[in-house]
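A further point concerns the way the authors explain their paired sequence and structure data. Showing the layout once, in full, would remove most of the difficulty. For illustration, here is how one protein appears when written out as sequence plus structure tokens:
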Amino acid sequence: MAPLALYLLAVWFLLAAVGSAEVSNGEAPIQYKSYHDLDAFELVREGNSEVLEQLLALKEIDVNRREASGKTLLHYAAEKGQAVVVDVLLQFGAKVELRDRSTGSTCLLAAVTAEDAEITMLLLGHNASPDDRNSAGVSARSLATEKKYGELLTLMDEFDASGPVAFEDRPGTWLVFSEGNRKYYQNADTQESRWSVPTSCAWLRQSKQGIYVYYNFVTKQVIWTRPDSLCWKFIVNKNQERPMWFNYRTKHMQAEVPGELPGELVGELMDEGSTFWFNEASGDMAWEEPKEISWRKVVDERGGVFWFNQRTGLSQWDDPVDMAWREEFSQKEKKHYYWNEYTGEAAFGKPEPIAWTMKKEL
């Protein structure tokens, strides 16, 4: 069922009651005089994610509301181990950086205190910092280290290495549908539907000085190499009945347009079709631009010039060795040859680093 239909059904049950409203939390129904009496913090403590989601959708609840003690809804959900509730709150924009006003603790510290790996992963996936300290000088990382919570420390190591992108759903998990003039997302594995944009579907591509920069508008992460969520090819093959979408990082293939792709990139990839890179010297094939030819010259804000590799994310001041091959003509041999002005290497055949060409068809 589409999200709007679910919301409308829930709204009817919540608002149509005159004398009282009964909202089930999976056990005995909770009695409320009216929908105005629904307490957000009580819903969080009970793990009543369904009703909480409806009220958040109706904007009856501020997702970053604090209790008198200074804790937010997200703090309570993390403390109580309510992973589903944490996910709902994050979907509706709960801020992971907000602190408990009485202790200075973050919701991530609350999750680590509870030794909850699932919630820790959800919060790291929304860019919660493991190093923010409370008023006593304790951070999520320092507590996990002190208590020797190996699983949680491993998650933090993954966060350190890649950031929130490390915890995104696999490419192909989400599909996009429309109801009226609104888009919603459906999980292809669980059939879950949601209005909010999943983190793996929130990547935008921007260009500066011929270099692509990738920005996730949910997690606020910026990276310089293409995320797995955007590594798709539109494969048109005469041996196939219909074109397919292929993620060349994960080797996943599907017929539906991936929900991770922004609209402008869908059109661009469809125009590209089954293009790929082929190395005429080695016979190798690659779906994305090979690292040997992915160097770009960049001018920094001070006018300095350096080289950046779009594929690997590495940068350096010196000219890349792979870019130092020059084609010359040998009068003695009466044919062209190649030499590298940095290494002094020479060859009559085109060297592998510069032997890449783009092909249009499989």
Observations:
- The CA atoms of residues 40 and 52 lie 7 Å apart.
- The radius of gyration is 26 Å.
- The chain has three domains: 3-167, 174-274, 291-359.
